[in-house]
Amino acid sequence: MKAQVLPLDIMQNPLALSFKLWHGVSSILYLLESLLGGYLVI
């Protein structure tokens, strides 16, 4: 039943590339924000 509802290979979805890109961008921005916050506290 689960196999009928969801596609088996979700990473073949065209939106997967966009998700990976934006996830990487947000991770880098979070890292920069955390480093800046640490710098301001010290």
What are the low-pLDDT stretches, counting only 5+ consecutive residues below 50?
none
Strand content: under 5%
Largest sheet: none
Average pLDDT over all residues: 83
CA gyration radius, whole angstroms: 18 Å
H/E element sequence: HH
Gross geometry: rod-shaped
Number of strands: 0
Number of helices: 2
Alpha-beta content class? mainly alpha
Helix content: over 70%
Distance between the termini: 55 Å
Annotation keywords:
single chain; 76% helix; mainly alpha; 42 residues
Report on the structure:
It contains 2 helices and no strands. The longest helix has 28 residues, at 14-41. The protein is mainly α and 42 residues long.
Summarize the structure.
By secondary structure, the protein is mostly helical. The chain has 2 helices and no strands. The longest helix has 28 residues, at 14-41.
Topology:
Layout: H1 2-5, H2 14-41
